[in-house]
Amino acid sequence: MKTSFASLAFQALLPAAVLLASCSKKDEPAAPVVEQGQVKFHHAAPSANLDVKFLADDAEKATLAYGANSGYQGVPAGSRTLKVNVATSGQNAVTQSVAVEKDKNYSYFAYSPGATTAVSGLFVNDDLTAPASGKAKIRLVHLGQGQASPLRLTQRLAVGSQAITADVPFGTTSPFVEINAGTYNIDVSAGNPSVAVLYVGEGNGSGSTTASKNYESGKIYTVLVRGYTSLDPNLASKVVLIQNN
């Protein structure tokens, strides 16, 4: 069988071409790893009783109705600008600069600072370190416009109550504290002596004074007071329980 000169030349070039292609693929730089933290977004602003968008450096992270929250969303580490916009019009309600650390977890709450249409943002660290064996962790976030200030979490006892958290002024949060896992009543209280003003109950905002809740070992909870005095039951002050892990 005859082999042409052109055919021989092509075959001679094949190994070099394969080698070059192989080298090219190996020499391609790996995609850079983006260092990021995780942020959980919450819509707790009754004065903005419509869908809002949460953005980090203009990248949309969640669109939420009032009372809803997202899961944890990746946000690049560093100095970031968080925004809350009206979903339908894009009108900006909040612009806030925050510092996000690599591998840290945070919650960002949109809330109503007063009985107006204004909206503010509360950016807090979420320490998701696992509690000790047989324990759960819990904290109080006080965003209930018009409620007493400060508030605290208390455990209802057969006689009286026992404080769980320190006092929490409006617009702030307590750190997570450990509690024994188990089923019992936790109230939101104010004053001295401490008097229950809102009830965690089942944790779904029902306001039940008799229902109790099972706080599971290893779980981390946020008790959120939100809403304000309103004839609309959807906007009225209530307590909801959010699980962070």
UniProtKB/TrEMBL annotation:
InterPro entries: DUF4397. Keywords: Signal. Residues 1-21 form the signal peptide. Residues 38-144 form the DUF4397 domain. The keyword Signal applies. This is DUF4397 domain-containing protein. It comes from Hymenobacter armeniacus. The lineage of its organism: Bacteria, Pseudomonadati, Bacteroidota, Cytophagia, Cytophagales.
